[in-house]
Amino acid sequence: MRYKVTTIVPVYNAEEFLERGINCLLNQTLKDIKIICVNDASPDNCSEILKKLSKLDDRIVVINHDSNKGAGSARNTGLDYIFNSSVETDFISFFDADDQIAEDAYEVAYNEAINHAADILNFNFVPSTHWEYQTVVSGDSVDYNGNCLNAIFDNEEFYTFIVCWSKLYKKELLRDIRFNSNRFFEDGAFAYKVLPRAKKLRVIPNKFYIYNIENPASLSGKTLSTERSKAILKTIKQTCEDWISLGIFEDNKDKFEKHILLYSSLVCPDTYAKDKKIISTLIHEYGESINNK
Prior knowledge:
With about 290 residues, the protein is of the alpha/beta class. It contains 10 helices and 9 strands. It has 2 domains: about 5-220, Spore Coat Polysaccharide Biosynthesis Protein SpsA, Chain A; about 225-290, no CATH class. The chain is about 45% helix and about 20% strand. Strands 1, 2, 3, 4, 5, 6, 7, 8 and 9 form a 9-stranded mixed β-sheet that branches. Helix 1 (about 15-25) runs parallel beside helix 2 (about 45-55), helix 8 packs parallel to helix 10 and helix 9 (about 250-265) runs antiparallel to helix 10.
């Protein structure tokens, strides 16, 4: 069977929200979807919940990790399953087990992507509770043709372009792209890989996704500022090296520096004074390495 959308769901410490989240996917008005749940060795009751749900609907596939590896690795397991098992699907999406999504989200997003020949279709999200960062993109639909990185650089409210779960990705775009091993900002590193390789990004203003920041067991909220800082620096190195290999570093380095400094100031305020100089120096050193060749 060919699916229009295949969704990858990393599952860890989400038993309070898991059934609600999976039902959001099962109840989509777009029925031609496949749901790949990757149980990342969750210590709670998620395994039993997934067993129950998979018996009720054969669109659900459950894969179990022997040990906890993080959301990025769980998403990679789902991607490997899609490509190694030759899952026939037009688009791939990501969904976090404790979040929610509007029931018509994938139908609207799929039709927009098909009708406008988009490699990536981006919709907006709202937080479940107070969120200090703006997520509004635009009141109108916008197309980026060519340099899709500009979606991040041209918008101070860039969060919707960084996160991986507010999008549909054309399957073939992700064949050779995977998340890194970071347990923080792995979605940012992923965005920096995917966007330069996309020919067209279509952005629609619909607020389809509800990002849950109420889950006390969520790992992202527990990450210390110092660990966040390390993850950002690792991502900068990986991104600069990737963009050099693509031949796009020089054209984007100044905008990247401005963007990453803004991001760091928001998520690592405790270490930002120290990180600011390190970040700028690191990016400049990559630029000098190119000029000295």
